[in-house]
């Protein structure tokens, strides 16, 4: 009997690669056309990049919460966007109160610290309660169960916020502290953008140090590799899981404050899109990978700001910025076609 | 000038150097363990005295690893009692059992592959809550000089033998009174296996009690003082290692003799 040679042309892969290649080609042609037209000035490009980095930093901070939890429990905490929203909302009350009594103006630095602390604390609390109430009882359930629970918890948190605070958009009282522009002649940056970027970098470095150099950080890494063996080493696995949620919450709370610095408003649905985008960023960078989440967030933020203008203006598409989410998610699809485990992801994580 | 006490020699030559060998350190009584509805251990009773090397031999799936997992708390028994130096531990979570003095080097090594050798050793000492560990690291490196060379290497990139050494070294970092070793020779060459067993005896001579699970029954019985033979979740034989090695039944079933 002649041996059958298993030659198979993987049709799906072929289609995917064609789609991927086509999208990249379209983007490249668009970029060339746009730059050829020269309608957008260099300083506008620069502003777009800075705004992209600022937004990307916020995504990155939220994405870290997804990736940390995934690294330890192998579940996607879809309620993480709501952890972010609750931080933002609670800090709105603090900010509005402080503003009312004039504290925002008389003592702006202390007021900002109070607002930030409120957001971080409440986000942490929500994240920890989420783990304790919604996820821990399902620790050994099939993987689909905590996923559904996460979506349920997300809706629960959204609509309790709506029930308590209404569905209106509330303007965040501005901090006079961060008004103004730094102008170095060749380079201009809004102070609030700069604060966002520096704060995010600081937090990410602190997290990196924590994970790699501290006892608890080492324990987190051990738990993410093997819970049973981690317990054999004397690690209280439940406590490490709570700690992980708490850290994710702290980062989401600080992200919430940075987000309100950029957008100056809160409402009950504000967690949804940043949550999805940050999840996208985490997948883009390779879910479970901390540096990946940071890089994924930055890439997504920059693409969202620069992408529509760069790729679409050349095709004379009206108001390309409306399509920023299309660009962002197309990039996700592209990355998943060519690198299914994300930019820095390990194969075993897929 | 005639000192009579000088001539009285301890009648028990204590080759373990463990001093007070004899009193029971670990005691299992009628331990039943289930995986779902399947009864993996059907009433295991055994004891390990301080300073001993005791081995648990048996074929695949007999319940050897399950016994160790029950002791270290990673799989809680449904009934029966496990006592360490007299106090019950079978209701404690695994992370508390370690600090009572039981370290488990699991089957398949299970080193933290994305961590360096040194970090793995640090994890081993986790139950000691941030005490100084330099002496212990030095001791492990003296036992396993290979690990000293690989100190900063990621554990996952090392060979099977090196990972086994690391797994044992990591367990020793907890300064256990009893070390549970699960299949330390698995997948190792005969030369490496011999080396590992020498080190097990050395660890024991330094004062650590060892409960050893092995498929390589010959090596295990050579190193151990006493042994238990386990079959489908029950202890079917218990004797000194020498007697077990001479036992007809054991020779046929586990030492590959017909």
Salient structural properties:
heterodimer, A: 350 residues, mainly alpha, two-stranded antiparallel ribbon, 13 helices, B: 258 residues, alpha/beta, Rossmann fold, 4-stranded antiparallel β-sheet, 34% helix, globular
Provide structural commentary.
The complex is a heterodimer of chains A (350) and B (258). Chain A has 350 residues and is mostly helical. Chain A contains 13 helices and 4 strands. Chain A has helices spanning 11-37, 42-73, 80-100, 103-106, 108-135, 144-165, 191-213, 215-225, 227-232, 237-263, 272-285, 290-312, 324-338; strands spanning 170-171, 181-183, 188-190, 265-266. In chain A, β2 (181-183) and β3 (188-190) form a beta hairpin. In chain A, α1 (11-37) packs across α12 and α1 crosses α13. The longest helix of chain A is centred in the N-terminal third of the chain and has 32 residues, at 42-73. Chain A is globular, with a radius of gyration of 22 Å. Chain B is an alpha/beta fold and 258 residues long. Helices cover 34% and strands 25% of the residues of chain B. In chain B, the strands form 2 sheets. A 6-stranded mixed sheet of chain B has the order 6-7-8-3-9-10, sandwiched between helices. Chain B has a 4-stranded antiparallel sheet with strand order 2-1-4-5, covered by helices on one side. In chain B, β1 and β2 form a beta hairpin. Chain B is globular and about 45 Å long. Chain B starts with 23 loop residues before the first strand and ends with a helix. Mean pLDDT of chain B is 86; it is low at 1-20. At the A-B interface, α8 and α9 of A face α2 and α3 of B.
